[in-house]
Amino acid sequence: MKKILIPVLLMILAGTSCKKFLEEKPNGLLTPDNYYNTPDQIRAAVNGAYQGLNAPFATGIGVAVSSVFSLDYITGYTQRPRPSGNEDDQFILLGGIDQANGALQTFWTASYYPIENCNSIIANVSKTEVVNATQRDNFLAEAYFLRAYYYFNLVRLYGSVPLKITATTDLNNTQLEKAPVEDIYNQIVSDLTTADKAGLQWTDKTGHVSKGAIKSLLAKVYITMAGYPLNKGNEYFQKAYDAAKEVIASGQFSIFANYADLRNPTNYNTGEHIFMIQHDEATVPNIMHFTMMPYPELPISIQPSYSGAMAPAKAFYDSYQTDDQRVVEQNFYYTKHTQYSDPSKTITFPMPYIYKYWNDQAEISGRDGSNFPLIKYSDVLLLCAEAKASLDGGSTSDATALSAYNQVHQRAFPSGTAAASVTLDNVQKERYWELAFEFQTWFDMMRTRKAFDVANNTMVNLIGYKAPMHQRAFTEKDLLWPIPLAEVQKDPNLGK
Questions:
Q1: Quick one: which H or E segment has residue 257?
Q2: Which among 350, 368, 386 is the end of a domain?
Q3: Distance (Å, rounded) from C-alpha 420 to C-alpha 414?
C-alpha cells in the first residue's frame, strides 16, 4: 500500500455531546511533535479514529448511492428500486466485481486511514504522561478496539491484506506485503484482549467503545474464526459462546420489547444497542432514512427524491411467516404510508420497503440524525445460540443458548411456546430474518459458507446457490472482493 498517510488527526471538540463527537473539523496534517500534549488533544485524536465507521455510508451525489449498500446487494436478497449503474449491478446481479469498482476503494480507505490514526494513538499515548494511567488505558482501549474492528472488516472482505500496526514516521519504504489471513485474525484478537484489560465500563451512553462492545466483537471474531476461512472449529465455537455468555451474564443489555424501540432516540447506546455510529442531523447526518424511501418517488416524505437504494427481494420478504411480528406493518417493513402533509390519505407502495431506519424527526427537519447500530444485543444472543448449537453437533438444549434464542424468536412470535431445543439451521435462519438489511448477512454467509434458500425454507451450501436477485449461482471466486485497482497500481505487492 504505497499511500500511507502520516495521521490526519481530525480536530474534534472534546467534551461535546455523544451525538457530536464524530463531527469533523479538519486542521491539517499534525505530527506527534505538536500533538498529544494535552488530554483534550488526545481525546480529539481518539475521536478522529471513529471516522472510518461512517465513511462507507457517505454519498457524494444526490441520489441513493453509497458503498455500504454493496454489502447487502451481494447477498442476492436485496433489490435496488432506483435504476442502478454497472458498479451496483456487479453486486446486485453477481456479475463479477471489477477491480476498479469504487465501492472497493471506499471500504479500503475507510479502514486503512483510521488504522493509521489508531497506530499513531497507540504509539504516542502509550508513553504519555499528560493523563493518568486509567485515562491512558481507556484511550488506548478505544484505539485497540477500533483497529481490530477495521481489520476485521478488511480481512473478511479482501482476505490477505497488509497488516500494519506501527505508526508511519516517514514516507520511505511504504510498500507492504500482504499478511497471512490467520496472522490478521490473531492480531485482531490480540487488540481486543488488550482493550478488554483496560477495564472500561460495560456500557457507554456517549457512544464510545465499552466493555460490552469489546466482548461482543470478540464473540463475532471467534465464531468467524471457527468457520471459514480458518475452520478452527469447536475450540473457537467455545470461545465465541463464552464471550457471548459474558455479555449476557453482565446483565447490562436487554432486548427491546417492541421493534419501534429500536428507532427511539432515547434508547441510543443503551439496552439492545451495544455499539452505534453516532450521528447528528446538523453535522454528521445519517443517510438511511431518506435512501430507504419508496421509488419511484411517492408523496410520503418531506424529501422523497433521495430514495430507492435498497428494498427486500420479494422472495426474501415472503420467507417470513405471516404471523411474524417483524413483517407487521411499520416494524421492519412497510407497504403503505400516509401522504406527507395530508394524513387523511394513504399511499400504497408497489412493493414492501424497509422501515427499520424510519425517523420521525427527519420528516420535520429534512435531515436524519439517527444513530446507526453496528453491534446489537440481538446479534450477540443469536451468536451465543449458534455457537452452542455448533458445539453440540447441530442442535442444543443448553439453557443459556435457548434463553438467548428464545428472547429473539419470541419477540417475533410473542404467543409462541419457548423452544426446548433449537437446531443450528433454525438459529442461522433467525439471523437472516432478524438482522436483515443491517449489513451483517454477507459476513454470515462468508463464515458459514451457507445460504438461506428462501424458496424452500432451508439452509444450503453457499457455493452453487442462486440467490433471488442474482443472474447465476455463487462460485468460489465471488467470496472475496479484489483489492482495489488503484492500490495495486501503487503497490504491486498487493497484486501477488
A1: none
A2: 368
A3: 16
